[in-house]
Amino acid sequence: MPPRFYRIRVSPELGPSWSARFEDLTLRSTPGLTELSGLLADQAALHGILTRIRDLGLTLVSLESHDAPPSPPVVTECGVTDDSSPVRLGPGAQHGGD
Fold it and tell me: Is residue 29 within 8 Å of residue 6, measured between CB atoms?
């Protein structure tokens, strides 16, 4: 099975010095939260990260798994969306859910 991309959000916000504890992942902090992201080889690697989060007393907020790193958001004249919900511009554009 190929490696999978994971995005794990924990609280609280962690400083750069914490990156050594999660050497396989990229850390990105926002107010009150930290996002850990990167490729993990298998379920054992994921469980190792989750165990480390527990042992450090961090709160798991969310976990996402993808076959590959997600594409960056698409920016349009109407705002930001993702590839799963494209925004149509111009005459005849429709709103979803109407």
Answer: no
Q: Per residue of the chain (98 residues), give pLDDT as tens.
A: 789 999 999 999 999 899 999 988 999 999 999 999 999 999 999 999 999 999 999 999 999 999 887 776 666 665 555 444 444 444 554 444 44
Distance from C-alpha of 85 to C-alpha of 91, rounded to nearest angstrom: 18
| Cα separation, 68 vs 13, whole angstroms | 25
SS (H, E, C) the chain: CCCEEEEEEEECCCCHHHHHHHCCCEEEEECCEEEEEEEECCHHHHHHHHHHHHHCCCEEEEEEEECCCCCCCEEECCEEECCCCCCCCCCCCCCCCC
State the pTM of this model.
0.69
Structure tokens at 27: 């850390």
